[in-house]
């Protein structure tokens, strides 16, 4: 873990896990092939059974190695129902990420707004927890307790070592206080939900939301949370519980944002303010319909009709690829964009924001200068921008002060724009 | 030739090795074949209003005893059993254990492949298992039962305490990480990769703690005695767990001088609104805005659960409560005095 002052000794990678990996990894040199063949020939009868036992032992050893970092969370009070999802009052799970008492968990576990949060320590004692910060992009929360002893922190599996098809174990602590519940599966995909999550076929449900996804060597790969491609709601993705489609946020990513969360800073998904012309995510190209005024894209000078060709050093051809590149970034992240306008190539660094400013839409084609509004209500207002072609520009009204009664100001209707395919 | 020799040697060994691996694979499929031969499909009452008229079961004696789940499916004069080979029999209902929700049926047959309950094994968390059942009645006639692969997630108790699970059985269960909770799967067999029987798949059940479907099996060592008694015709229903005794004079927060905030929500947190002077609460320096978290060792997630927990304590006894004041957990003992009102 980064920024650790108190460190608990991390146990060595599970020897069984390593042994198991060695047996399964297909070696290239014929010497090892030879050894493998000898292993097949002269091993005890029923070699497959041995492999089965070895596998089972490796999975259990891996789970044991992380178990001390998987804590039980209890809540007091809270809503009984959020939208149509009925919330039980049962315990949920959290994962220790810092020996000093920082614990992460799924935002789903707190969506019913409990009055108080308790963390059950491995020795059975309870500690009151404070919800320090939320990550609204990756749907997890950071809790803080004041532990009596340094807590056990799991070793983190590097994202670069994750392979589709590798074993993984989903852990929770919802059934028994004394030991975690486990569910076994494989990694189904990496970079899911706009590049944010690992996908697994292990059953993921409220029984293990907030717990870790662990590899065969007993290293924490990610934090189990419900997620949905379509919705950013906190309960979205719950409908897929135990279905074989489950998600985990890579712990490596979480580590990079922990310092910010520790300071109590909530994190949000970053948006650029670009609206695509095509409404189809998968067939639509990257031509912009418009950019929201005052958005990062508008400030960079992008306009409707521009075509995005590159984001963050990656070529993009489809709307979905634009979502994929922007979707995993946070508000505040800087992202390099390349767009083409006709023959012209425009490059800009955009600082993504959490929220787009709603913009006022003047039906008469005149936009009031909002800064001048209080004064304007007393006597007059000015017309700062007249975007052609509109009724007012036809009448040759230009940006100059004009006197208007309250009545005429009232005729300027404001409407909130309704974003459709925004990124 | 000399150069080629090691390669040939390796290739030869590899072929033998792969062959052995394949043989071992055949071993698992042999085990599945043998186990499926012991499964039966059960057809009885139901078949309307979402109540399926079928379930699963398995043979537990060569002369045709069948273990299955006790359910409405058996609640008819004519229960039909279809064996793995497609033969059909009318079954006789020998008896059922309402606590474990298992039943024993008997068909007139001999030399049937069967699971020996005496040889059933106990499993621990992490054990690899196969679940055999006729889920959704997918298998018909001589089609073998469906097989699902999974792991024992945890061994826990089906705690019936105050209706956490709506079931009469409160004993140990194997929670599984595979979706065995399906229509028609109740009464199916849970076996390990060696083909040894370990459990019987339970009826559909929701975990009311988090409102998810529970996938579980009841260990065979829990049901063995009942099955033997039913087979011998001398089954006597085991006494239900004695219900938790409520004391004659149950405790109430008001008797301790605690006035809770108005209970307006389903789960109103048990915040102290007022402390009456001259009472146990005021003597223990309980303060308004304290949040009561635990009574004894039981979590009180709401005013309702606080009252329920206190009802289990006699008003003459001391009450140990844990409260949250600010971010501090405090344990205090409240003892109602004889003069308290």
> What is the CATH domain class of the largest domain in chain B?
Mainly Beta
**Total separate domains of chain B:** 2
Instruction: Write the element-wise H/E pattern of chain B from the N-terminal end onward.
Output: HEEEEEEEEEEEEEEHEEHEEHEE
Assign a percent range to the helix content of chain B: 10-25%
Q: Beta fraction of the residues of chain A?
A: 25-35%
* Cα radius of gyration of chain B in angstroms: 28 Å
Helix content of chain A: 10-25%
Beta-strand content bin of chain B: 25-35%
What CATH architecture label of the largest domain in chain A applies?
A: Beta Barrel
Number of helices of chain A: 10
Radius of gyration of chain A: 27 Å
Structural class of chain B: alpha+beta
Whole-number average pLDDT of chain A?
81
**Assembly state of the chains shown:** heterodimer
Shape of chain B: elongated
The helix count of chain B comes to 4
User: How many strand units of chain B?
Assistant: 20
């Amino acid at each position: 873990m980064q920024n650790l002052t108190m460190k608990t000794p991390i146990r060595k990678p599970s020897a069984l896990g390593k042994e198991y990996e060695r047996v399964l990894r297909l070696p290239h040199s014929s010497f090892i092939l030879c050894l493998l063949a000898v292993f097949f020939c002269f091993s005890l009868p029923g070699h497959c059974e041995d492999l089965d036992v070895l596998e089972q032992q490796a999975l259990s050893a891996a789970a044991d190695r992380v178990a001390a970092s998987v804590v039980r969370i209890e809540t007091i009070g809270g809503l009984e129902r959020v939208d149509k999802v009925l919330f039980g009052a049962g315990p949920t799970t959290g994962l220790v990420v810092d020996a000093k008492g920082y614990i992460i968990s799924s935002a789903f576990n707190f969506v019913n707004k409990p009055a108080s949060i308790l963390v059950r320590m491995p020795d059975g004692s309870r500690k009151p927890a404070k919800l320090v910060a939320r990550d609204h992009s990756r749907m997890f929360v950071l809790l803080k307790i004041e532990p009596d002893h340094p807590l056990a922190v799991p070793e983190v599996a590097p994202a670069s070592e994750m392979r589709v098809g590798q074993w993984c174990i989903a852990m929770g602590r919802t059934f028994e206080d004394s030991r975690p519940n486990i569910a076994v599966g494989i990694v189904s995909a990496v970079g899911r939900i706009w590049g944010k999550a690992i996908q697994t076929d292990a059953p993921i449900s409220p029984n293990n939301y907030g717990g870790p996804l662990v590899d065969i060597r007993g290293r924490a790969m990610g934090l189990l949370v419900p997620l949905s491609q379509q919705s950013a709601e906190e309960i979205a993705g719950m409908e897929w519980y135990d279905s074989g489609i489950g998600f985990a946020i890579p712990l490596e990513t979480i580590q990079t944002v922990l310092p910010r969360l520790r300071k109590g800073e909530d994190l949000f998904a970053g948006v650029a303010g670009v609206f695509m012309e095509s409404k189809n995510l998968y067939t639509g190209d990257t031509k912009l319909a418009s950019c929201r005024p005052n958005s990062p894209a508008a400030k960079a000078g992008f306009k409707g009709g521009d075509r995005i060709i590159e984001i963050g050093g990656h070529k993009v051809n489809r709307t979905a690829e634009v979502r994929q590149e922007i979707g995993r970034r946070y508000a505040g992240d800087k992202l390099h964009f390349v767009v083409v306008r006709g023959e012209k190539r425009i490059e800009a660094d955009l600082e993504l924001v959490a929220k787009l400013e709603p913009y006022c839409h003047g039906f008469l084609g005149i936009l009031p200068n909002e800064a001048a509004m209080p004064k304007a209500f007393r006597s007059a207002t000015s017309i700062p921008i007249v975007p052609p072609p509109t009724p007012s520009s036809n009448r040759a009204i230009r940006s100059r002060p004009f006197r208007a009664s309250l009545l005429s100001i009232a005729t300027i209707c404001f409407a909130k724009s309704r974003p459709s395919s925004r990124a | 030739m000399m150069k080629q020799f090691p390669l040939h040697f390796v290739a030869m060994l590899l072929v033998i090795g792969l062959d052995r691996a394949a043989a071992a694979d055949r071993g698992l499929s042999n085990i599945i074949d043998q186990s499926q031969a012991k499964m039966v499909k059960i057809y009885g009452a139901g078949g309307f209003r979402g109540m399926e008229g079928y379930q699963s079961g398995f043979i537990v004696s060569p002369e045709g005893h069948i273990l299955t789940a006790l359910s409405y499916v058996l609640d008819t004069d004519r229960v039909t059993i279809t064996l793995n080979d497609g033969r059909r029999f009318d079954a006789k209902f020998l008896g059922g254990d309402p606590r474990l929700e298992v039943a024993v049926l008997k068909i007139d047959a001999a030399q049937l492949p069967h699971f020996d309950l005496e040889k059933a094994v106990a499993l621990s968390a992490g054990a690899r298992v196969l679940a055999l059942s006729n889920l959704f009645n997918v298998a018909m006639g001589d089609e073998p039962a469906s097989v699902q692969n999974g792991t024992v997630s945890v061994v826990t108790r089906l705690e019936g305490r105050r209706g956490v699970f709506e079931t009469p059985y409160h004993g140990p269960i194997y929670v599984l990480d595979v979706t065995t909770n399906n229509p028609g799967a109740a009464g199916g067999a849970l076996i390990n990769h060696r083909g040894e029987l370990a459990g019987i798949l339970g009826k559909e059940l929701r975990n009311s703690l988090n409102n998810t479907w529970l996938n579980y099996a009841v260990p065979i060592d829990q049901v063995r005695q009942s099955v033997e008694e039913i087979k011998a015709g001398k089954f006597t229903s085991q006494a239900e767990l004695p219900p938790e005794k409520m004391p004659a004079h149950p405790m109430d927060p008001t008797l301790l001088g605690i006035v809770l905030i108005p209970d307006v929500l389903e789960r109103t947190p048990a915040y102290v609104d007022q402390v009456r002077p001259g009472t146990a609460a005021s003597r223990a320096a309980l303060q308004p805005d304290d949040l009561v978290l635990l009574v004894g060792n039981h979590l009180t997630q709401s005013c309702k659960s606080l009252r329920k927990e206190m009802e289990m304590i006699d008003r003459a006894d001391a009450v140990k409560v844990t409260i949250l004041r600010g971010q501090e957990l405090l344990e205090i003992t409240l003892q109602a005095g004889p003069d308290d009102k």
